[in-house]
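Entry for the shared binder. Reason: the reviewer on the internal report wants the predicted structure included alongside the sequence.
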Amino acid sequence: MAEKKSNRGAWNSKLGFILAASGSAIGLGNIVFFSSNAYQYGGGAFYLPYFLALFVLGIPVMILEFGLGSTTGRAFPEALYRTVGKKGEFIGWWALSSALFITMYYVAILGWALGMMFGAFGSLFEAGATAPFPPFSQPTTGPSAITYFFNLITTWWPLLCVLIIWGLNMLILWKGTATIERAVRIFVPLMWLFMIGLIVRGLTLEGGLDGVLYLFTPDIEGIKEPTVWRGAFSQMFFSLSLGLGTMTAYASYLPKDADQVNNSLLVSFMNCGFEYIAGVAIFSLLFVFALNPVGGTLSLSFFAIPQGISAFPWGVRLFGFLFFFLLVIAGLTSSISLIEGPASALIDKLRISRAKALSIIAIPGVIGSVCYTLPQVIDPGLNGNGTLGLSLLDVMDHWAFNYSLLTTGFVTCILVGWVFGAAKMRAIVNEHAKIKLGVWFDILIKFIAPILLGGVIIWNLISEFTGDNIYGGGVDLGAYSWIPYVIPFVWLIGATAGAAYMTFGRSYASPTPAPEAPSTHA
């Protein structure tokens, strides 16, 4: 590759960067949540809005985030500071602070997946399971993934698993791009290999093809529903890991002459390709065993799919182990990017060592992840989430994940599109791009993307506050009834305070000039 970028580190090859960026995008949600959304929004009817979302929202915003990183050679906050000043830096730190809250519970979910992976060769696929909730108090007559899961989260075993996951993240990130690249060169191909294995298994089962046919058969009436379009655009933005600062951090280790249009297309198509083959694998399995794919990442990952695997005629434990191993490595490729985003930003701003930056993130990160694994039963009737840890996680995920990514994307498009100038950013990217961006890029960044993202945010907020209860407020949590009302403020106040301190309480060590557009625009 071209010249190294000072002592921050650099990718050894373009392949390493593409694997890392696509690994960041491909996570737990790609494996199961895409299938859930596709089923919920009418199977094939989901694809037209999804493809439109890819080209009018996903790829342009990814080009923008990649462009910020490679042009400035800095992580998200300083990249925005160099382009639009302090207001940009603030939204950069706000995004990373929110991402830390997401990382905390994301690692907790990976801890549960690791626990279920070990359980695949234990009692996960055996009869006689119980859990300390009245619905699961009697031993099951056959394997029950849901009973096993709720028994698992009422123990302290997930705490050990969480510490293992955090340890693996620190190990992979210890030498920066060098160790990240070594990990993704193994993990990303393995994800594709295992998913293809699940496809082969699903399609060779009687009835598996019916699920695939449903997935790719469009329901024209479904396309007319506004919720289908809302779901497709939300899924696309979340799927590509946009609005988290991770893509800008990864791109900051690229040389300035990197072709970010080409990179964005490669990463986006790899991500979508993985989602499609995951959809084929999951739909074939679920339809064979008449399981309903409607649900979120947790219910599909830990209940529905393992229950389907338990009905395999052979290889149950092996396929169960491989499925949860797939979840763990897919989650790791995402979690390392979630941690690298703030780590690279701290190194840029404070001029500290990587070890110190990782320690600053890991200490609150581990504490937060432990909170999400607290096994205390607070909802014995399982009207909600059962345990204190899962209840905290569910509410934090709803607010931090659903709103921070979209809000960051919305504000970034406004700042870069209108303050820095979309045409200026286009000229900078086009200087080294084989496929040149046209004026359509300016229109998408300045008008279309903000309108779409702002519309989804407003729609979500209207839905939020026109119901009978705030999210999670309809469940009797006893002494913990404060959770649905306090957790949103913990996220908002924590992210805002962290962003304000890093933006206005600390200064960059040296002047940071804004990137200049080439004299001849493409």
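Summary line for the report: The CA atoms of residues 349 and 508 lie 5 Å apart.
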